[in-house]
Amino acid sequence: MMTEHEVKIKEFIQSGNLESWLHDQPAHLFPSFYPEKGEKPYPEKYNDLKNALIPLHNIVEKGALVAAVTEWKASISKQINKVKRTKGTSSSDFKLLNEAISFDPIIYLNQHGVGHVNKVIEKTYEMLINFTSDTLSPSEVFLLLCSIQVHDTGNVFGRCGHERTIKQATIDKLSAIIPDVPTQNRIYRIAQVHSGNVNGNRDTISSSPLRQDGNLFDKPIREPLLAAILRFADELADDSSRADMEALSLDVTPDASTIYHHYSNSLHTVSIRKNTVNQTLFLSLEYFVSSDLITKRFPKFDGTQLLIDEIFDRTKKVEQERRYCMRFFSQYLPIVEIRIRIEIDPGYDLMNPEVITYTLRENGYPTKDISIDYPENTGEKVIAALMGKGWRLS
Question: Does the N terminus or the C terminus of the chain have fewer Cβ atoms within 10 A?
Answer without folding.
Answer: N
